[in-house]
Every structure is written in C-alpha cells, then in structure tokens.
C-alpha cells in the first residue's frame, strides 16, 4: 500500500480499485499482507481481553490441564493400570494433552470467530480470512503457558530435554494448521447455518475420547488403525516423541497422514471460505 | 483539477433474495426442504411446484462519477439504497451486476467506533480502531498525540472504555476517524451522534482536509442542513435508482420537492367532524414559502371551518402556530361540510432543519379533531451560512436580523 503521506497525484495506477461481481479475488493475497497490522491487533485484542477481570488471570490456562492430568493419570494409570513405558504417567498425559488443547482451543476459537466479529464484518472491509487466523493467537499463548509448566515438571522429575525438541515447532504448526483448516470450514458454515455453533463443541468433546490423550498408542495395538483415522493421533504421538524421548520409534506414517489431512483441510477450507466470503455481510 | 475522475460507478445493481435467507437459516430447514421437494418429485401432481423466492433490488442501475475534491451528499428516504451503495463502495458486500472504478486509498466510516472493545483502554482502542479503519500502525503512532488532543480525553487514556461516558466514547471514536487520510472517504450517518459542538469540530476538520488536499468524500445524511453545509454535489436515490444528481442545492431542492409531505386519515367510526388529509406543498416549500392544506369532512356544516396549525421542531418544541379564529374579521368563510383549508405563510422565519406540523379542526366555538405531528418536512433556507452556530444554540427562528454600527 502506498504511504499515507504521499501526494494524491502520485497515487495513480497501483491504487486503482475495481469492484465487480466475483472480482473480489484480484488483490486478495496482497491485501492479506497489507492488513497484517489488523491481524496483529485483533490477535492482541483477544489475548488482552481473555483474562481481563479475572482474579487468577493466566492461572486459568494452567488449572484445566493440571486437573485433567490428575484425573487421567488416576483413571488410565491407576484404575486401568495402563503402561506408560517407563515414563512418569502424569508426564505422558500432559504431553498428550498439550497438542490436544492447542488444537481444540484453536478450533473452537476460529470456528466461532466470524460470528463473534459480526459487527466488524458488516461495517468494514478487510480480507475476512484474517479473523479465523487471528483467533489462533489466544490458543497459542495458552499453549505456551502449559508448555512452560510441562518443562518445569519434566525438569523436576529429572528428565533432560533431548534433540527431539528441535522438531516441536513443526508439530505445533501441524496442530494449528489442522485447527485452522477445520475452523475455516466451520466458521464459514456457521455464518449461514448456526447449527455448527453446536456441532463444534460436541466434536471437541467427542475428540477427547477418540484421541490417545490419557494413554499411549503403544498399549492399544488392536485399535491402532481406527485411532489413526483421527488426524490428531499422529500429532499427539509426535509430541510425545519430542517431549518424552522415551525410546519409542518415531511414527512417520502417523504424522505424514496428519500433515496430509491438515493440508487438505486447509486448502479446501480456504477455498470454501473464499467462496462464501462475498456473502458474509449479507447473511451474518 | 477538472476532469480528474476518482470514482466511476457504472450500472451497479444489488439484489437480495428475501425468501432465501429466511428459509435457509438452519441446516434443518434446508434438509426439510430437500425432503419436501423429493416427495413432491415422487408425486407427479405436485411436481414442478417450485418454491418462489422473492427478489428485492436494493439498487438498480446506479451510475455516477465523482471528480477529485468533490464532496457528494447522498440523500433519499429510508430504504432508498443509500446504505447498500455505501456498503458496495466500501467492499463490504459486492454488487450483483455493474462495475465500480476507484482511484486512491479508500476509508469508510459506517459507524462510530467500529470494533471498540469495552475491556480495552482508550489507548489500546485507538490502535485497534485505527487499523480496523485501514491505518497502519506507524501512521497511528505518528498521529497519536494529535488524536488524543483532538478527543480531549487525555486523562482517561488508560481507562477501559467501558467506564467512559457515551460522550467520551464518541469523542475518542470521532477523533480517530477525523485523522484518517484516505483519498476517498465514505461516511454514513455517523454524525447524528455526539454533542453538537464536537460534531462541528469534526465537520470542520473533514472540510478542512477536503479543501486543502483535494480529498473526495461521499456522505449520507438525513440532515439537509449538514448536507448543505459540507457537500458540493448531490445524489438522490429513490427505490434503489438514481432520481436526481447535480449541484447540492439543486439536488436537495428537487429531493425535498417530491417528498411525500402528505398524510391521509381514514374516517372515524362515529361520524363527526374530522381531518381527512394534511399536505405541505413541496413546490411552494422550495420557493421559501409554506402552504399547509388541511382536508376536512363533517356531518354538519362547520360555521366556519376553523383549522389550527402548529409548526414544531423535530424535538417537539412548538415554534409557530396559529388558527383561523385568530385571524378575526380578516377571514370569515361561509359554513362548509367538506373541503380544504389552506394556511399560507409567505415569509418563513426558519433555519434549515426538519420540522413537524400538527393540525386541529374546529368551528367558531370548539375543536373536533386533531392530528399531532401529522406531517414532517425538511426546510432548506436560502440564507444558509457555513459558520452558523448549531440550532440548539441559536434556535430555529430566523427572523432576519439587521446590523448597524455606531463607531465612537
């Protein structure tokens, strides 16, 4: 974008804007870059507002995973007596919970994003993809808080991080991409069909049970192929490989499948979002 | 710079499908319709009975051009398509057909404080709202002090805006908007809120930058005085179509001329003297006079038919009223059962604004019927001055003061 201070005469051809039915796509991707400040401030807004007027503040980001870890350790480790393969059971659970919470929070956030920003959509122009995209920020911050907790717990239990950690950013990216792809679908669908407002929380709830969060995939070989249908299985396994370094082999097949599904979801999600985008302001 | 066309709007139309939106709102409705049409398909008798979708053209073949530095006032009744046009120009929604070409950076202001978050501080909201309106972060940082000074709320800059009074909120929002520097500015009826003093400050700021930097502005308002004061061109929309365009005063006069300054009233259940219609003649209004025509009907001759007329401001304060009885011997018509009484005012001592008229019907001794705020009209005074103080300060009356000076 040309600078705000330039003289009007110098603004000529590159600022030519043409509006026509179906034409919106012309500068879409460059506009997305042009509006990066908006992306940044929407993300900042969500993060700042998140724990305003709460007593515990960011402590809330910790309470849920800590309680869930305790319960899952008790249910799966003690009651069911599942094996953690030499790793302290709470660490196994927390290492699985980390990617799951990142994914589910990012998915919930981006799926609800268009509706919760309806006032912006009906009053100003900007590439709408910024909205579900900026909703990933809050989930990432919460994730980093829990990751810090994990590091502390891991060191306290005497486990030194290995070189596997270097690959963690890649798997974080896979989890976020999965959430964004599905979120783009859901949020665009929610604009028209409010049913999806109820479907997403339901999916997230079911997801807790069909993902290997409370147990290691190694203990359920019989159900492995069924579990692999869930793209988060590969991500959770990869996270455990990074964080636990417990000698389990790296499951290349699982994570490849996750990456393939996330790429497909994101590609199709963005396609559908872009197709519906033009009518958002009319139906929201 | 004559001939420097900034905006070209060519045959733009926008269609909304009314039935469509209402019916498709949830998935269930859509599935229900799918099943229904499948059943219809199986029963040959009902086959082909298509659901009708109602079309509504919010805009139809709208074309106009704007040169650099023009300030276009867009006028029209509610539902005439003004907001739809602004939304298309702002790229919020796209036209169904047609083409628009714009040269320059566009900023639109369809609402005051879009995206303000109540939990964030004034400072944080300046940045958030600024980027939402299309400013870059660096640009906001550069103008930040100026914006804050303009808003006059320095002390509360680090307070969440949820604790602001509505006046402070609007001030801050306006201050940000007033510092936008696009080549093309699109403004909806946002100036209707906020206190008059501050509104004026914003209007001045807008016209200042328009004049000095050759900025092009599109401005929608119901307030004819505001249109008259800041615009130099007019576009009049009626039922989605361009009904007139040209210099602001001509366009405004034409628009006000054809307005439906008329109200008809049904006969009451019990037959008694009643008002049948009230009409303010727009043509006469455009000439700077007022004629209020009051139709009446009565089961018995009214001797004489007496009509009372009260002109009041849009806030309801009576400004000028009179009735036939007060005319005394000057007006003594014969007893009549039905007809039209016209009240004439040849010199209108009013400033440009929106006014209401209430009418009464009676005879020499008593009143029989009344219609409060029966019609509304916009009056455009030929004596308009840009430096005029707001009407709540000086009042609606324009009595034609003369001035003289005796120097000592």
Show the helix and strand layout:
The complex is a heterodimer of chains A (284) and B (408).
Chain A (H helix, E strand, L loop, with lengths): L15 E5 L7 H7 L1 H15 L8 H21 L9 H28 L1 H4 L8 H5 L1 H21 L11 H25 L3 H15 L13 H4 L3 H14 L7 H26 L2 H4 L1
Chain B lengths: L4 E13 H6 L3 H16 L12 E13 L3 E5 L6 H8 L7 E7 L2 E4 L12 H11 L4 H15 L14 H13 L5 E4 L8 H18 L2 E5 L3 H7 L2 E6 L2 E7 H10 L4 E3 L9 E7 L1 H5 L3 E13 L3 E8 L4 E6 L12 E10 L7 E10 L4 E13 L11 H4 L14
Parallel strand pairs in B: 3-7, 3-8, 5-6, 6-7
Antiparallel strand pairs in B: 1-2, 1-4, 8-9, 10-11, 11-12, 12-15, 13-14, 13-16, 16-17
Helix pairs in contact in B: 4-5, 4-6, 5-6, 6-7
Domain unit count of chain A: 1
By DSSP (H or I, 4+ residues per run), the number of helices of chain B equals 11
Largest sheet of chain B: 6 strands, mixed
Q: List the strand order in the largest sheet of chain B.
A: 5-6-7-3-8-9
CATH architecture name of the largest domain in chain B:
3-Layer(aba) Sandwich
Distance between the termini of chain B: 48 Å
How many domains in all of chain B? 3
Could you characterize the architecture of this molecule?
The complex is a heterodimer of chains A (284) and B (408). By secondary structure, chain A is an all-alpha fold. Chain A has one domain (27-283). In chain A, 67% of the residues lie in helices and 2% in strands. Chain A contains 13 helices and one strand. In chain A, helix 2 (36-50) packs across helix 7 and helix 3 (59-79) crosses helix 4. The two termini of chain A are 29 Å apart. By secondary structure, chain B is α+β, with helices and mostly antiparallel strands. Chain B has three domains: 9-56, no CATH class; 63-257, Rossmann fold (3-Layer(aba) Sandwich), CATH 3.40.50; 266-394, Distorted Sandwich (Coagulation Factor XIII, Chain A, domain 1). Chain B has helices at residues 18-23, 27-42, 82-89, 122-132, 137-151, 166-178, 196-213, 224-230, 248-257, 282-286, 391-394; strands spanning 5-17, 55-67, 71-75, 97-103, 106-109, 184-187, 216-220, 233-238, 241-247, 262-264, 274-280, 290-302, 306-313, 318-323, 336-345, 353-362, 367-379. In chain B, the strands form four sheets. Chain B has a six-stranded mixed beta sheet with strand order 5-6-7-3-8-9, with helices on both faces. In chain B, helix 4 (122-132) packs across helix 6. Chain B is globular. Chain B starts with a strand and ends in a 14-residue tail after the last helix. Residues 46-50 of chain B have low confidence and may be disordered. The chains are: A mainly alpha (284), B alpha+beta (408). Chains A and B meet through strand 1, helix 2, helix 5 and helix 13 of A and helix 2, helix 3, strand 4 and helix 4 of B.
